[in-house]
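Section 3.1 - Work completed
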Amino acid sequence: MDHATLLSARARVLADLEARHLATPAAVSALEDAMSERGWWAEQWPAGIEYVAGLVAQDVQDALFETVGRWPLCLSCGDGAPQHSLFIQPDLGGPDPVWVCEETGDVVAPLGGL
């Protein structure tokens, strides 16, 4: 298994959590849970390693929705827009995942670049 790719995925998601001031113990715990699950997944499907970073981000996003709400929120649409999220594109999470505005469909940042 490619441990460097897994560690890079963790670092990228953690950077985005920190960028939005959400690197709380609960969020980091959700990240660690996602890393454990996706590490197992990558062992079962080694060719899927290129998808892990985006999938981990989606897993953390889903876990945080249950406890803190939407993450990450779109900050690009300005003050008048209703609160909405970003989502990972491509849908499967790779190979080059980016955050996309839910409302406009515009690419906001690469994963790890919020």
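Second construct:
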Amino acid sequence: MAGAIDPMEQFMVEPVLGRHLSLFGYDVSFTNSALFMVVVFVLLALFMAGGLRRQLVPGRWQVAVESAVAFIDNMVTVNIGQGGKKFAPYIFSLFFFILFANLVGVLPLAILPGLHTFAVTSHITVTAVLAFFSFAIVLIVGFAKHGLKFFSLFVPHGAPLWLMPVIIPVEFVSFMVRPFSLGLRLFVAMTAGHILLEVFGSFAVQGLSAGSGLGVGVWFASMLMIIGVSALELLVCAIQAYVFALLTSLYLHDAVHLH
């Protein structure tokens, strides 16, 4: 239908320069997804730069960074336990990359001509890479620390031997599903929120275009929903980053301590 708004268009990965670049038969174009990953990296680097001043009387920026570091330090200490400190840099990077990427993805840049934000965490390729990289670290740590004893993770303590043919496959499947659940949870949460915002935005535009009392009512109701969904999205941005980092910490606990 002419004039219809496609809610999935916002997720299209396109070259920033407007054309595809090919190298040895591979597409090496610098896309909008790559651009916003760079934006997230720069913002995170600037955020951390404010905490590296080491002032005797810290300012608000330094306090914020130190609080963020203390938050992650407490997370790995509580959830990984002894030996968890070495994983703090990775958990910190994971948490704040996801948080900043989520927040950048909900910035209302579209109100400015020619600008449109891009949520990199709304793409399964990005969330899957983060999830499988975390899972690979868990496997490497588990086998490096325990060797073949790592397989005892699939044998719960105190379980009767006659139930092992059932328990071991169930434990193995639940373990192997971890990276998929990590990646899908973040991907679905961010994608659903952005689709809702696009849909209600479409309703608001069409309501105003109608020019009738009913159209104004549709616009008003849509704007209320946009405000509510936006507030929920901000909460989801933080929750999803926390859940991803927390579950990664718990999985590392299993790799370090087994049961």
